[in-house]
Structures are given as structure tokens and as C-alpha cells.
Specification:
The protein is built from two helices and 20 strands. It is of the alpha+beta class. Strands 1-2-3-9-6 form a five-stranded antiparallel sheet. Strands 16-17-14-13-20 form a five-stranded mixed sheet, with no helix packed on it. The protein has a four-stranded mixed sheet with strand order 12-19-18-15, with no helix packed on it.
Amino acid sequence: MTAFTKRSVMIASTLRQWISAATVCVLLSASSPREAAAADASSWDGDVRSAVRLVAGSGANPGGDALRAGVEIRLAAGWKTYWRYPGDSGVPPAFDFSKSDNVKSIAIMWPAPHRMIDDGGSSIGYKGDVILPLRIVPQDSKRPVTLRLGIDYAICEKLCVPAKGSAQIDLGRAPSAYDAPLAAAEAKVPKAARLGEAGPLAIRTIRREPGVPHPHVVVEVEAPAPPPLDLFVEGPTADWALPLPEPVVGGTPGLHRFVFELDGLPAGADSAGARLRFTLVSGDDAIDVLAVPEQGR
């Protein structure tokens, strides 16, 4: 073999090594984002009608202990699931995080829901895909956090069926592929407001009036025109089953009224002086007001 031939073989061998190394680097760099994205979400648990998973977010606030995550529910076309208060029919989701590691507390946040009307009556909930944001406080902020979820929930099309799922995810403070979807869901969570507080979306008055067979409550709200606009009300405990407020036709432009009967109370409960929770929804904007209805004159 001549010196020229040897040199050619050495160059070819070196080039092959460079190409192999470059190929490995490209494959590693291409797989890293996918692996990172996969680590930011658990696998889906469910079927073609619905499925559930956990998604991780970055830290809730710089220097704070809280972590961000979300329960994502995916629904097939035509199917729905329910809000924390389901309305005339339905079952709210039940969450079990008891098998999580290094978790002190978990706060579940609920994006503004929608009123859904079918043959079974009016219910409150979601269609399509919804993320319920979570705020997690670790027992020890220096130790890893593993979130383990068990969930029982109901889904409905023409018939309602029970569904369940489980998911697990490790949480941290690094940026997540799901920070943007989580932020979008968090932005839809109703903001706390006070009765009578001025704003583009406001609950101005809540008045209790006599009625037969039950007293009724009239709620006056301020919202941009035209609607969509809706109002939901919850009792002081989960065993209250108040009817959905209905809009009152007419009134001053920019002001809207809703009315509902004080019906569906648990046995022995007294509605007088009860503090109720009102959720006013207009598109993607929503507020929460806790108030005791004033006695009408």
C-alpha cells in the first residue's frame, strides 16, 4: 500500500468517525426536547371517550415554595364533564392525592365553567379539553416532590357513565413545556371580588325577597354588552343544591339581573344569613363573590 493510499484510508476512517459522532450529537439534541416534554406530563389514563393526566409547571413564584401543576382532562367530541358544583344533574370530580410524596397541601383551581342544557336539565361543566390548575406546597422544599393522583369523575353524552384515572409525575422548578397551557388555564380561574366593587365585570347587589313556596334571590350584575353572560351560585357547604340562576329579561343597558329560589337546602338548614358563593362568567373573564344576600324591603 502506497503512502498516498494509506493517507486516503486514514482520512476516510477519520471522516467516518466524525460523521458518526455528529450523528450521535444530532440524535441526542433531537431527543432531548422530546424527553423533557415527556417528563413534564404523565401518560394519559382513559379510553376513547375521556382520559386524564398530570402536567407539570415551573415554580409558582420566584423564591416561593409553591409548585405548579395541573390535572388535564381530555374529552371526545360530544362528551362533557362537571364543575365542582354540577348543577341540576351530574357528579363533581373526586381527587385523591394521598399517595403523593413530600406534599403538605394542594389547592385545586377551577377555570370558569359553562352552562350545559340537555334533556336531563341544566348542568355546569366543561367540554373538549380542560386543565384544572394545582398549587402544591411541599413538606420540605429541599426534597423532591412526586404527585400521585387518583380521580373519579363522570362523563356524559346521551348517557352518563363513571370514569376514573390515575397519574404520577415528579415536580420541579425548571421551565416546563406546559407552562403556557397552565398559564392559560390559570387566567380563566375566576378572580376574587367584593360585592359592589367597581369593574368591567361586577356584582352590584344581591337581594333576598319573599316568595312562595321559597324565598328568592335577585342578583344585579354589571357586564359588557352584548353577553355571553352567566351566573352560578353555591351554598356554604357541598350538600346545598341550589338551582341555577335564570336571567331576567329587560333592564338597564349594561346591567343584568338573575333570579333563583332558595331551594335545595339540606335538612334543617336555614338560608337566612347564609353566605353564598357567586361566580359571574362573561367569555373568558370571571369573578367570584362571597356574600350574604341582603333582605329586601
